[in-house]
Design brief:
Layout lengths: L2 H20 L12 H11 L2 H11 L14 H5 L7 H14 L2 H6 L3 H4 L4 H10 L1 E12 L6 E12 L2 E14 L2 E9 L31
Antiparallel strand pairs: 1-2, 2-3, 3-4
Helix pairs in contact: 5-8
Amino acid sequence: MSDTRRGILQDVERPAQLDATRGGAPGADHGWPPDSSRRACRQRRLRPSFLRYHAAVNAACPCGSGDPFAGCCGALLDGVPADTAVALMRSRYTAYVRGAIDYLIETHDASTRGEVDRAGIASWSRQTEWRGLEILETVRGGAEDEDGIVEFVARGRSGGKSFDHRERSEFRRRDGRWFYVAGTPVREPTRVSPRVGRNDPCPCGSGMKYKRCHGR
């Protein structure tokens, strides 16, 4: 037997030998390997991808609720239904921040979903530096209501210009799930892109044509 192989076998047999000499049962924890070695092994097993994931789910939710993302909008983006209209509003803002385009389409009410421009939404989401959401007012929209209104301001920066998009949004509950129907601008937001045509996607990011949104 080679010296290398003999050394490996001796290391493998060492725990059992320690058990026998100390009167313990095989497999009992007698301090070998040392705790410091165990901790080092565990730390090596924590790969960077896991650490990044752990940091992401424990970070504050982009919607501004103050709760961790995983326990706030993260759960809704994963499929948990929003229990109120304002919860859906917050989750849709977070979807814009995180580029969850499918979620934005799926939570758009069927009555207006056909007017949504997916490419426009994706572009707006990707090109905007989102800076916060402020909920100004809610009307109905509770767990027992069938409709609701949420007025909000979404702040961001796009095309080198900052903007405050203030909107009064309409929500509807169908089969126990809340959906975004449409939004009415409260005031003209700061223009963040060149002049758009009436049939182009509205630069506010609603996903609707300009003529049906801020072009009215």
